[in-house]
Write a structure and sequence with these properties.
Blueprint lengths: L12 E7 L5 H9 L17 E7 L3 E7 L8 H14 L5 E7 L6 H12 L4 E6 L8 H10 L6 E3 L8 H11 L18 E5 L13 H12 L3 E5 L4 H7 L6 E4 L4 H7 L6 E3 H8 L3 H7 L11 E5 L11 H14 L4 E5 L13 E4 L7 H13 L4 E3 H8 L3 H5 L6
Parallel strand pairs: 1-3, 1-4, 4-5, 5-6, 7-8, 7-9, 9-10, 11-12, 11-13, 13-14
Antiparallel strand pairs: 2-3
Amino acid sequence: MGTLNETANADRFHIGIFGCRNVGKSSLINAITNQEVAVVSEVKGTTTDPVSKAMELLPLGPVLFIDTPGLDDDDALLGKKRIERAKKVLNRVDIALLVVSALDGIREYDLEIEKVLIEKNIPYIVVINKSDLTNDTVENIIKVKSTIKEQKNIIEVSARTGKNIEKLKELMGSFAIQNNGKSLVGDIVKKDDLVILVTPIDESAPKGRMILPQIQVLRDILDHDGKALFTKETELLSTLKSLAKKPDFVITDSQAFKTVHEIVPLDVPLTSFSIILARYKGFLKTAVDGVNSIKNIKEGDTILIAEGCTHHRQCNDIGTTKIPKLLKNITGVDFHIVTSSGNDFPEDLSPYKMIIHCGGCMVNEREMRYRMKCAVDAKVPFMNYGIFIAYANGILERSIKDIPLL
């Protein structure tokens, strides 16, 4: 089991590095971090796929750098795929560094990315690299500054000499999204509250460790001076009987929702890790609204089951087996299931009647909100595993009534 002090990538500040080939994107990352994080070469196109690196960086704290391939790759087919991957990174970055070379100036590809950044409302900084190499760069720098729309977010640097690298870090820090006290359960759990965390240990549980949402919720409870007690659903009844008083809250894995609901007294608040995550990442209300569409599922409709991580699917996998079975029991019709995982969330959502997403523990808030917005824009109902399972078991109202819909 990982330590409680480790920060999950999904909770790190995501910094995407974009630009044409050979403008010094990888060198810039190395200069910012003062480490050999990215491979540097004079050969164009050395970075062929997005590369992520997690670290601690002052003054931002836990960050995830994502180095992307050059936007101007001249290999027609391969280049197009690399550019598509680079653009897809935009959906999960909290801030973008658009790197241009003082030697080459602004290019069409740079302006294309800037347009997308503005459309997606992503904060960005235009970094003019190699500004130390020659006096002939003055005209290019002036043109960059006159062309870029966000004038105040332009900085001249040199990854080679370290010129203005500290100022760049300070500028990035000013963009860092502050949590404003937002936490998983901080507004639910009070000092000295006892929270029971129900964690099934079955074929889908990782050997020797807890899944990420369980650890995150535990840490948040401790951070707010609450008390936490872990138990399996098979031991829940005896655990409750051993307590001097009722727990103040019970949080369960969604797959044990029905069993836990039947054991926990109705006057004890109950919800799931998945529902807590949906609220934390800003799509709980949309997910709750989405379940009302289940009654509209018709014969032959296509349902998207989406997961934020990639993992080996078990024979009784929740996404491909358990949820379709529950949906079949509710609707009584035959439908088609399409699955996606990791970063392969479909861009075209028109074929789908409904989207049922995992809790999103491996996806940062910006990307979850992006996925939700894509669904809303396409008028496709969007919900997550926890909300769906609570609805399927007739306990949705109970699972959300003690949680403010942030």
